[in-house]
Write a structure and sequence with these properties.
This protein is of the alpha/beta class and 278 residues long. Helix content is 48%, strand content 14%. The chain has 2 domains: 2-178, 3-Layer(aba) Sandwich (Rossmann fold); 186-270, N-(1-d-carboxylethyl)-l-norvaline Dehydrogenase, domain 2 (Orthogonal Bundle). The radius of gyration is 19 Å and the shape is globular. Bound molecules: acetoacetyl-coenzyme A and nicotinamide-adenine-dinucleotide (NAD). Acetoacetyl-coenzyme A binds next to helix 2, helix 7 and helix 9.
Length: 278
């Protein structure tokens, strides 16, 4: 099977890596060679770590040998499945799927790793809504078990089955849900992170204390502010905006502090500064 991934950022790189670990031939595309080089370096580091722990079936070299890194979208023409993992912006994703629908062979399945954007809208843009689906991996992809599988209004049973089986072949546990803003994962997770940010803004506690309270008190592996920095504050804001717009309740209003930090370029771990310094 030939597996395509669009975007070599933290999610696209992770998805491509796990696909190659699972024996698929993988093409990764991004808009600039430097983004591909950066993505490849992250994959190499992760593979080295997993290899050291004896968690890979093949050597890192064999796995990397299954991967191609391209800037040209035409590289996806003969892919059986293409998973998109670019910026969380409906307009940008829809434009991309309009192009991909023309490039990928007609029987190929298109999937989005979006955190919150309506799958049905992206499916319409692709021109092949029955062969379109949400395939939502969790960060960090090489370590996290879940893939949330989101059916759009017109997704066929065959497409849902194919993507479910592919997630299983990647060693993941697929769980199905329907197409509502934020699906299940981010409808529940993101308001908690937003509330933690609101606590910082209101001076309820210092970031370290908020994270410590949730880690030690609730047994969460990461505190909510560490997790927001890890996900990317730009992505958190984009998800909250989709929830607020799509569900219409003010309980989903993005914290003004979150908005201000994104405006200031404080995006968390990826920019070197968020609630903490990296
Ligand atoms: N590849 C390979 N190894 C990795 C890795 C990667 N990508 N990331 C971390 N590791 C390794 C670390 O190097 C470390 O190795 P050593 O033990 O040899 O030092 C090991 O994994 C464990 O890492 P940590 O010491 O940091 O310990 P941890 O126990 O905290 O585990 C974690 C890390 C699994 C990420 C854990 O902190 C965790 O589960 N955090 C929460 C993650 C989460 O909630 N993800 C979902 C985010 S929401 C989302 O994804 C959806 C969305 O749309 C926004
Ligand atoms: P990121 O910023 O790390 O990476 C995005 C990558 O996409 C960048 O390398 C960028 O150059 C590339 N890109 C942007 N526009 C492009 C285009 N038109 N064509 C090709 N490449 C393009 O972002 P990320 O955290 O990997 O998030 C990607 C997607 O995955 C988003 O939709 C996000 O909501 C979703 N997601 C994120 C997380 C997370 O924890 N960060 C978890 C699950 C899902």
């Amino acid at each position: 099977m030939k597996f395509g991934v669009i975007g070599a950022g933290q999610m696209g790189g992770g998805i491509a890596q796990v696909a190659a670990q699972s024996g698929f031939d993988v093409v990764v595309q991004d808009v600039k060679q430097e983004f591909l080089d950066r993505g490849r370096a992250v994959i190499e580091k992760s593979l080295a770590k997993l290899h050291e722990k004896g968690r890979l079936t093949d050597t890192p070299d064999v796995i990397l040998g299954r991967m191609e890194f391209k800037t040209d979208l035409n590289a996806f023409a003969d892919c059986d499945l293409v998973v998109e993992a670019i910026v969380e912006n409906e307009g940008v994703k829809a434009d991309l799927f309009r192009q991909l629908g023309q490039i990928v062979k007609p029987e190929g399945v298109l999937a989005s790793n979006t955190s919150s954007i309506p799958i049905t809208a992206l499916a319409s843009a692709s021109g092949r809504p029955e062969r379109f689906i949400g395939m939502h991996f969790m960060n960090p992809v090489p370590l996290m078990q879940l893939v949330e599988v989101i059916r759009g209004y017109s997704t066929s049973d065959e497409t849902a089955q194919f993507v479910t089986q592919t997630a299983e072949r990647m060693g993941k546990t697929p769980l199905a849900c329907n197409d509502f803003p934020g699906f299940v994962s981010n409808r529940i997770l993101m308001p908690m992170l937003n509330e933690a940010i609101q606590c910082v803004m209101e001076g309820v506690a210092e970031p370290e204390a908020i994270d410590g309270i949730m880690k030690l008190g609730m047994n969460h592996p990461m505190g909510p502010l560490t997790l927001a920095d890890f996900i990317g504050l730009d992505t958190c804001l984009a998800i909250m905006e989709v929830l607020h717009r799509g569900l219409g309740d003010d309980k989903y209003r993005p914290s003004p502090l979150l908005r201000k930090m994104v405006q200031a370029g404080l995006l968390g771990r990826k920019s070197g500064q968020g609630f903490y310094t990296y």
